[in-house]
Amino acid sequence: MNLVKIENLVKRYPMGKSQFTALKNINLQFEKGEYSGIIGPSGSGKTTLLNIIGSLDIPSEGSATVLGKKIENLTHREAARLRSQHMGFIFQTYNLLPVYTVFENVEFPLLIMKMSEKERKKKVLDALEWLGMTDKVDSRPAQLSGGESQRVAVARAIVKQPELVLADEPTANLDAENSYNILERMVKLNKELKTTFIFATHDEKVIGYLKRKIYLVDGQVAKDEIMH
Amino acid sequence: MLALKLAYRNLKGAGLRTWLNVVVLSLAYVLIIWHQGIFTGMLKHGSRAVIEDEIGGGQYWHKNYDPFDPLSYDESHGPIPAELAGLIEDKKATPILIRQAAIYPEGRVQTVLLKGIEPGQTILGIPSASLDKEEDVLPVLIGRRMARSTSLDIGDYLTIRWRDVQGTFDAVEGKIVEIMNTKVVVIDKGQLWVPLAELQKMTGMKDEATIIVVSQNVQGQEDVSDWKFKDQKFLLTDINQMVRSKRISAGILYVVLLFLAMLAIFDTQVLSIFKRRKEIGTLIALGMTRRQVISLFTLEGAMHGILAIGIGAIYGIPWIILYSKTGMKLPQATEDYGFALAERLFPSYSVGLVLGTVLIVMVTVTIVSYLPTRKISKMKPTEALKGKIS
């Protein structure tokens, strides 16, 4: 069974009196354990597609099925449950909760899942160890560098070991060394935990790591290539 | 539980902004409770003084007596009925005869009420025993306010003119034998207290009275022929209404205080939602429902109220206890308020007052915290994640 299946997907946004079509007739499938990326310049529709897969948005036409659930039919509550139980998000601007410590930020998805305190603590420390952030557990986001912040964001995305991690331009604000560190760790996660990663990016550093590259131009899939 | 934990973390993380709101809100709590306590104390004190010095356990009024109509005084007297004479003999009631008269302090005529009371009575807190002195002139007892307004002092003589039962004018010389320090204005200003028997004799109204005050220990009195029984509740109506009207005017202060506190909370909430829209988007992306996010923000606002209870208690409880013990010195002008007030006013606080205030403030804070959060339900998470409000 496909982890993600997108059929004839169209996404339109109102723009004044007319409508802007961000995605045109997209048909894609993603399997479990894929390490793939949606590549394209700004405005090509890659973030929109990622948001629909992440159940943060719905298609105007067509269908997006994620983990067997049709995104367009989900209620707010069902979509929230899908995200909290099965998905992890990594954002370009890290989106860490500013008043929480590193530990509390990573713990947050587990709190939503109502996991026990003991289990939470173990999982958070494991995730932070994976990302090499155990010495920063009590730091607040303002005290972290960009690379460290993104590592915390990755730890937050993988702490519950989700089936699917969606990463929107995860290295856009990072220098080469930090980008390399983050990407290496994500590749390792993909290999060891079989976590499916879908990136939205136009960063060459990320593109080099991808096993599948889906090129999006003006809201349409221009090329879909699998690397061997 | 999750929302509570998260709300607490967020409030703690917000630092100074939280504490400023909490301090303003705690001021609202403490000032409302303190001020309400003052009025409750005022009512209690006023009522107690009026009961002790003026109305006792209730009064029988002669059918023609109307304290607000001086013209009724001429006709409002009658023989004490046998049913009440028994109470008087048992020291459970005391008769008072009220007549109009005129005095001439400093050469100016002044209308007064001449009140006859038994010197040996113990029903009212008036020092009537001082009227028992053997004098060759009429012994007169007056209040502090009356003494001040007429420049009379103990030992001073004054001419009293009155009309007897037939309407004939007569006059006698009286001597001030005592100046009483009562808190009840209506038994002080414009009043001369004289021995009942003397007044009955002077007016030709033997064994007659205008009102009969019963002891506080006597219960369940009913009307007796021409005498209508007025219970404490009726007789305290004026003071209750006066305190109530003062409470209403004080209510404006509470509303202003609460409004300021609520404005601070409302502003904080609006600002918080605006500043934290990216965070709201993140919370939704991480799996919180909109309702959970709304609950979280509402709880954060409402928790200001809970923290304010703690902060208010830290400085409010010692302050209120100190005030309850030392009281508040009232300015002299309060003598003219129209009801009984001591020189020091002791506030009175009850559990009901504290809980009621806490409940009102908490409900208001919660509503004010909730109102701005409704915007969250209309937010698109994709826009919020970018820091935009859709």
Give a nutshell description of this structure.
The complex is a heterodimer of chains A (228) and B (390). Chain A is an alpha/beta fold and 228 residues long. Chain A has helices at 46-53, 76-86, 102-112, 117-130, 146-158, 176-193, 204-207; strands spanning 4-15, 18-30, 35-39, 61-66, 69-70, 87-90, 164-168, 196-201, 212-217, 220-226.
Distance between the termini of chain A: 22 Å
Mean pLDDT of chain A: 92
- Note the overall shape of chain A: globular
Protein structure class of chain B: alpha+beta
Treating each run of at least 4 consecutive H or I residues as one helix, how many helices of chain B? 11
Major sheet description of chain A: 6 strands, mixed
Give a written overview of the molecule.
Chain A is α/β, with parallel strands linked by helices and 228 residues long. Chain A has one domain: Rossmann fold (3-Layer(aba) Sandwich), CATH 3.40.50.300. Chain A contains seven helices and ten strands. Chain A has a six-stranded mixed sheet with strand order 6-7-8-3-9-10. In chain A, strands 2-1-4-5 form a four-stranded antiparallel sheet, covered by helices on one side. In chain A, helix 4 packs across helix 5. Chain B is an alpha+beta fold. Chain B folds into two domains: 197 residues, no CATH class; 173 residues, no CATH class. The two termini of chain B are 30 Å apart. The relative contact order of chain B is 0.18. The chains are: A alpha/beta (228), B alpha+beta (390). The interface between A and B is medium-sized, with 29 and 26 residues.
What labels describe this entry?
heterodimer, A: 228 residues, alpha/beta, Rossmann fold, six-stranded mixed beta sheet, four-stranded antiparallel beta sheet, 35% helix, globular, B: 390 residues, alpha+beta, 2 domains, nine-stranded mixed beta sheet, two-stranded antiparallel sheet, 11 helices
